[in-house]
Amino acid sequence: MKLLDIISSANSNLFRNKTRTFLTILAVFIGSFTIILNSAINSGVNDFIDRQVESAGGDGYLEIMTTEAVDTFSSMMNTSEVQEYKEKSSNGQNSSYITDEQIEKASKIPGVESIDLIYFATPEYVTKKGSDKKYAVTSLNLMPRGNVNLDVTAGRKPDSTSSEPEVALTEAYVKALGYNSDEEAIGETVTFAVPNTIACYTAVKREDCLKFVDAKVVAVQAPGVMATGGMRANLALNDAIYQLSTEGMPEETKRHAFQATAQVEPNKVDEIKEELKKIGLIAMTIDDEVGMIRTFFDAILVVFSIFGAIALIAASIGIINTLFMSVQERTREIGLMKAMGLSNAKIFLSFSCEAILLGFWGSVFGIAVSMAIGLIGNEVAHQTFLADFPTFDLVKFNPLNMLIITLIIMFIAFLAGTLPARRAAKKNPIDALRYE
Amino acid sequence: MGKVIEAKNLTKIYGKKSAAFTALDGINLDINEGESVAIVGKSGSGKSTLMHLLALLDTPTKGTIEIDGQNATKLSKRQLNKLRNSRFGFVFQQFFMNANDTVLENVILPLKIAGVSRFKRKKMALEALKIVDLESKAKNKSTDLSGGQKQRVCIARAIVNNPKIIFADEPTGNLDSATGDKITDLLFALNEKRGVTLIIVTHDEDLAKLCKRIVRISDGKIISDSAVRKDAQAKASERREKEAARVKRANEKEAK
To answer: pTM of the entire structure?
Structure first.
């Protein structure tokens, strides 16, 4: 008997008892559907996180804080533990600041390409140049030097090697500032108002202590969920704003920074992290930062996958049962085929084929239904809770994943089928023919 | 005419030691090409066991079977399967048809097992159906057929691979005498016109007497092996015809 004949007769044998076959396929379907949809959500979420990571920082990009700062943050998070007081230095300087010495040492570590202290620029409001409509600025972050991407809908990321101040707006600011489209905003100039810390202590009116700086709009950002939201400034703009706000302060105080960014050789990240630790600096890649989120999602999906796996185990038992019944019913047919010279191996193959086909059809329906639900789900999500993230597909179908899942399910079905298939193959033709 | 089957000292023992049961005890039997042989015996006599051994469906405890001079007891499973598939045809009392398949698919089965290509096997199956005069039913489901038609399909299935030997196990056992006659006519026509060796296992004396030779089995031994005289053969067919006519009349009466 040829393989193709075995497969086609296995398939037609399956549909002899339609109800029973349908129910068995349904059982496989429940398992495959759960696992496929799960894997699709996993792909969707991970793809989204990946893109966010990419937009936040690419390979070899590090964010650096002092060990003390990290400790302070973690003790802030942990209110149930009280730590012993550590004496500060005589000038009261907080050791959470990164020192010049540390920067000096860090820049000498082999593989470190650049390292910049990050000063927090805190402009008060922004206007379209020449307009008197003012919009509060809640967050303006530095677009650091190095291998960092920005997910943009128009323009290009702010260039931190340029000496001209540049800014990437968010879509909300584009609308508020009165541009008709993202493209229209590109190349326009906006003005930031910056309060000078010293002057504002004594100023009677707030306007009296405000200073202004112009920046060119070079990009509009695609919405993201990571901590990197807000407008992005290039180094020139960030510095300009910081200078304006700290004008008149002692140089030493001006130099206070909690954070630094570094661009290092991507394949040396781990060693460099170790070296930085020795000089009291903790470095994190964006991957480290989103690792938590990823772990959280993965944990949920693992739980659902376990449900799917349990459903598949139950379905396997269903397959075993179905095929045992089928073997029983077709005892005489098996006997006849054996009398006619069909080998045990082919009988085994033919029943295994039925099992595999049960798995196959279950997976195919699983894929079809989960795709349908996934597409509807994406549509609904885009219109509701994911309306701000047009580039984020909640469910993403990866053909390779689906193929692998289908193959695994077919293999599980095959394993389940081996028991009944063995029984069929071992039947003695004479006994089988006598069977009433 | 050469020997198609040569069985020497065939013994089959079921069970072991104290529970051992000797189903066949030192059977020697030669069957020539083109013969029609009836194996007759009461139930439990060992006639079915003998047929199973001759048809290579079972292996003897002792003794050898040669098919066309080839020692079948020394063949591998694969060779046995091939031998059965290419040389033998089977007709059973209970038909053994796949109810949900079409008539054609049922007839095709041995060819499918042999791995004959789709086109060729369809052609061969239709030819076999033509011989049993059921070409028109090729596309029907086998459940739609009457008992006689079913057995004719089984004969078509048995001859589709052009076998040398047809084993028929109580071929008319499930049929009334009129339909049974049609089946026997078909079988003997195959025997006479095509030279197919016919081995019929039966307890029906009339059917047995239509064969050229009767082998009687009792308690696992051959008690007689003789050619059927022409007049006995004629008497048997006469009696059968009468019986058939009677059944026909009875049926007609019932119909009225």
So the answer is: 0.70
